[in-house]
């Protein structure tokens, strides 16, 4: 997915209540606490509404008669109501703050678990910044809305209704003025929802795009510096930041409009009520105490009325955040455990591709399948090299055995069992991978190497033995010279290590997993010649009892293989030993020549394939080399 776009939301057609109702499974465990918080907030509002009624009685009674003791008693009652209101506000916070953080925790944990189970195809479409903004900003916003916005919106609406009813007890004309002047606010609120909802979604998506740009720039800082493109990245970032700023300004204007009406109409109501109240007193229909109590009540209601705009926009932000979070929850997981799983108790390691087809999700209808009917069998314990020109589909083929992607036609089998019929955990115990682009995690060397051995305690004697054997095979003895040895924490993505060091640790991780099938996508590309030779020699012992599929980008890697498969335009066009293919396949000779040319540029040697070698079937390691 590009940094400037996000997958479309299927939730936009839902009403705001329906969209927010999807949070029910997360809120249900704390619903009792939320009800307690709402009850406390409502009690605080009711206590506040009682103050004007008490004031009316004080003015009409003790103040009119001059009874000082009664005035003090009335003031004490007002004080007690204020203290009670404060206590209820504290109780509301006690009820909801901790449970709301539990909701936040559960949502984050569930999204993280969801991201781990969704297929690689999902991650191909989504920018990491978009996922990060949903995980952090959106869920944090939902938590604040549950703890604050939801309860206050409900309670303030109830307070307005109760207060409006109470206003009618003094005179119907005063209550009517209050209600009629509220109509423009509700109309503007409806228009506000239509506009603000769209802007809120744009803003949060643009914030995700901006986060993606920051992450890409940080991860690619070496490239940007090497090519002097820092200013270019800054211009791109500034453009995205300016777009987000303009959207935020549009949001601010929308909020400003609703606040204008929320501030104007109460002021207008106060003015009209004052004129009507004076006229009613002149007509003898109410007295000064009643008018005073009416304005005291209207003042109490002013904050709930004015808060509606803020709480309404808060609710729409929460709705947008909910849509964005549920965009992930609603993604279809196409790579799942089978309903009727098959188990392989003692795997032999026979890996077979039977008429396997694959095409990426964004491939055009007129394009051929990237893998267009692969038929290939790896015998148990056999090492097979996979060679082909760039774009022939080698790397894609290696993703199919462990179901990083599923075939779109045909099948892949392990010991005759379709890999789609095996539980994913079991399949990935039997098949391990090492990629050319070695990815390490911000953890210790030990934890990185033993990542695939959930059955081992990393710090046990067995864990130590497995780790050491894997490090020896990968020629990764350099770890002992790190500041804390194998307990050294590797920096983000292992960028504190060299490319060759990262590759060796990734290879050690694959070896430590002790799989029955090992899939290696050119795992030695960043190694120097001497280290590569040592690793290859160690790998020969490891691969003696392990089925291996190795993508070969070097002639020396081909030498590890028992047989070689030639991939051409999405099809396996030839299978045999290196010597056999040299004799029988012109395209294979072309591919090997290309590999040798690349090797020559890297090592400074010029290998030559002679006619005698083709006729005699000499191995690649026996070719004459002329020093450059």
TrEMBL record:
It is a multi-pass membrane protein. It comes from the Bacteria. Keywords: ATP-binding, Cell membrane, Membrane, Nucleotide-binding, Transmembrane, Transmembrane helix, Transport. SUPFAM superfamilies: ABC transporter transmembrane region, P-loop containing nucleoside triphosphate hydrolases. Residues 351-594 form the ABC transporter domain. It is found in: Cell membrane. The chain crosses the membrane at residues 30-55, 67-91, 145-166, 172-192, 258-282, 288-305. One of its GO terms (cellular component) is plasma membrane. GO terms for molecular function: ABC-type oligopeptide transporter activity; ATP binding; ATP hydrolysis activity. It holds the Pfam family ABC_membrane. Residues 35-317 form the ABC transmembrane type-1 domain. This is ABC transporter ATP-binding protein.
